[in-house]
Design brief:
Layout lengths: L4 H14 L4 E9 L4 E8 L6 H6 L16 H11 L3 E7 L3 E9 L11 H11 L4 E7 L4 E5 H8 L7 H22 L1
Bound molecules: adenosine-5'-triphosphate (ATP) and magnesium ion (MG).
């Protein structure tokens, strides 16, 4: 079910959307030199109190009332352990949450990065008013997408238009491909 890193990231991005984030940033550091993929999600949503933050990444912890399990963070944490990486969660009530997940890039168990354009599109679709930023960094390159810039260009046209959403997805994936090609 969770075949790539992007699917895990989407779960975490959706947590941020649910937490009422107004600003949401996904940073990916994809480095051959450091043999690491570091994924950082920063939101300014409702945050968690100390007790919740401590156990949020344990299996089954949830504040959901509809279904008594919460696995998004636990799965991501487990994956970082399998892939010789690390996981950290930093949160403050009323300020927001930062989650950092690192995996060894060349570890045999590390899944591919997956479709970052797709998960960015889904995040924007979940709440088009969020200021969403994607930063993709390699050893020698950098690609940045911000929904603010697109919103400015569109001059009143909704980000929710299907053509716009698809354009965003393609634009991001092309930018990332370009950054990867120039790195090799
Ligand atoms: N970015 C965040 N801001 C505030 N609270 C969060 C954030 N991410 C997670 N949490 C809290 O941690 C709990 C566990 O998150 P997790 O993603 O593991 O499960 P879930 O979202 O409850 O359920 P599931 O992801 O399985 O639908 C959430 O219910 C929520 O209370
Ligand atoms: Mg979740």
């Amino acid at each position: 079910m969770m075949e790539d890193l992007a699917m895990h990231l989407l779960e975490i991005l959706m947590n941020s959307v649910k937490a009422g984030a107004g600003t949401l940033t996904l940073k990916i550091y994809d480095s051959w030199l450091d043999n690491v993929i570091r994924m950082t999600i920063i939101d300014d949503g409702c945050g968690m109190d100390e007790e919740m933050a401590k156990k949020a990444a344990d299996p089954f912890t949830t504040s959901r009332t509809t279904r008594k399990i919460g696995m998004g963070l636990a799965f991501m944490k487990g994956l970082t352990e399998t892939c010789n990486g690390s996981f950290s969660l930093d949160s403050e009530v009323g300020k927001g949450t930062t989650i950092t997940a690192e995996v060894e890039k060349e570890c045999i168990d590390t899944p591919p990065l997956g479709d970052l354009g797709e998960i960015s599109m889904e995040t924007i679709q979940a709440n088009p008013d969020i200021d969403y930023t994607l930063e993709y960094t390699t050893d020698s390159n950098h690609f940045i997408f911000t929904s603010m810039e697109v919103r400015k260009e569109l001059d009143g046209v909704s980000l929710m238009e299907p053509e716009i959403l698809l354009w965003i997805k393609e634009y991001i994936n092309q930018g990332i491909e370009q950054a990867k090609e120039d790195t090799l």
